[in-house]
Amino acid sequence: MTRALELPETARALDRYGRRASGVMTGGCVLFVPAAGVALVAPGEPWADDLIGALVALGVLVAGAGAGSWALARRMRRVLGSGPWSAHAAVAVRSMRSTEAVVLRSPAGDALWPLEVVAMRQRYEPLRPGPDGVMWWCGDPSRGGVLAPPGGGALIWTRPVKHRRARRRIVEQAAGTGLLKRATPVQPQVRATVPKVPDPVPTTVQTPRVPLPERPEPDMSGAPTYARLAAHAGRQAVARTQTPPRIRRNRRPEADVREVAWWRVRSLRRAAGFSRVLVSLAVCAAAAVAAVVRPEGSGLMKLFLVAIVGLAALAHSCHRLLTAGIPAVRLMARAAHSPVPVPRRYVLLHDPQDGVPVLVVFPSHGGPHDLPEGLLPLLAPGTGKHPWLGLPAEPTGTVELRGWHDFSAGGLPFVVPRFEGRALWPAGPYQPAGGAEGAALLARLAPPMDAPPADAPPMDAPPADTPDVDAPARQEGDSAPRASL
Fold first, then answer.
1. Contact at 8 Å (CB) between 141 and 113?
2. CA–CA separation, 82 and 411 (whole Å)
3. Please, where are the H alpha helices in 6-84?
């Protein structure tokens, strides 16, 4: 049995989580150093006491948060090192208390596991499962475990929902979405193998020729064909159409980069990082104005501390703008000026690992069984709450690709897609579908699914009775992977 921690992506994700927790804890401890320095330089001063108290309180909060994350990383390591990954049909549910929860269908398909997410909303939002979502699970549903998108490249700790009434309400909401009727995902440890037949050994003795066993035909049901990815994209689009956000009607349309300079295009300014520079400048200016208005005592030292933080953020954002933001935006603008469009079919999917929209590109003329040519990650054109605003309304269609003037260090071209006369800006170079990174991304975008359970009701049937939510581990104790915590 392959342990979850033996997967390279999972091991790297856990190492990143542990290093981030150690960095936060170290940063909190570092704040004690200037507090001690101020106590030595200006003992007994009123402003010094206030500044020392603020630094110590901030250091304790930051170090405590880092220590909690570090302890959670050790707990994840124990769980991932004692059990395998298992793939489950999943749906996200938000309770009335704004608690983020994920409901998994048990391996047998007759029970639902309501789990509460233990993570910041900023980390969980990109990993939130969609209407046809699949999540990997390792742990015990009655004690807690680790959730990850397909591939195991991002880890989130979850625990069972405690209150009986909340569990029942969450399970009823999940059952109403048709979770029990969904197909069973292909398990991560299952790998189709083709038996290898040894070549016959030549001999001088004439022996009757024995026919070799025929190799089985490969199963193409899980291949990333145009029809399969288009169906998956249609199911993902349901979540966006069910809750349309409020859009400002007076929002000015974006300028065309082929007619104006790149810095006059709103999306390119945001992609370059101008907004971070402006926010840092605003913090520094506000601290300077407040220092002029209130220059007395401890208030001045607190404003001085805010100004130091603002100056550090300004230096960092300017460095990112000059070294990474502006060069990348210039490559995008150069690709958009390409005079020769390359028409292609597309399927718009969302990466479950980080929520990035991805264009899966197919030949312009073909059928439903065509395989993809390449993949192009996109920058989300919308807002933070609604990042899909500005994406194509249809999950499938035709697109014009322009570029192939500049290439990355790995030889991958920079390409800009255009829909109905407007451009969408890429988050990286154009990746061929036949490469290692492209194949891994395709596996995450649309995980292969098995047939629906034999006893599952038809899709047009009313939802079945709500399963027992008080004993998920008791009903699935033999089939669920358990971990010693």
1. yes
2. 41
3. 8-30, 32-41, 46-80
Distance between CA atoms of residues 13 and 149, nearest Å: 12
The per-residue DSSP string of 231-279 comes to HHHHHHHHHHHHSPPP--TTPPPPPPTTTS-GGGSHHHHHHHTHHHHHH
Count other C-beta atoms under 10 Å from residue 205's C-beta. Answer: 4
Per-residue pLDDT at 413 exceeds 50: yes
Measured between alpha carbons, how far is 286 from 305 in angstroms, rounded to an integer?
A: 13
Predicted confidence (pLDDT) per residue in 239-294, tens digit: 555 444 545 544 577 788 888 898 888 889 988 999 999 999 998 888 888 777 76
Which of 78, 69, 86 shows the shortest CA–CA distance to 28? 69
| Residue 353 near residue 149 (C-beta atoms within 8 A) | yes
Contact 84, 188 (CB under 8 A): yes
Q: Give the whole-angstrom CA distance, residue 165 versus residue 251.
A: 44
Rama region for 403: left / alpha / beta (φ>0; ψ in -120 to 50; rest):
left
Tokens of 131: 């209407």
Query: pLDDT per residue over 88-119, tens digit each?
Result: 888 888 755 556 888 898 887 778 888 988 88
The angle formed by the CA atoms of residues 214, 216 and 219, to the nearest 5 degrees, is: 165
- Decide: pTM greater than 0.85: no
Q: Tell me, what DSSP letter sits at residue 120?
A: -
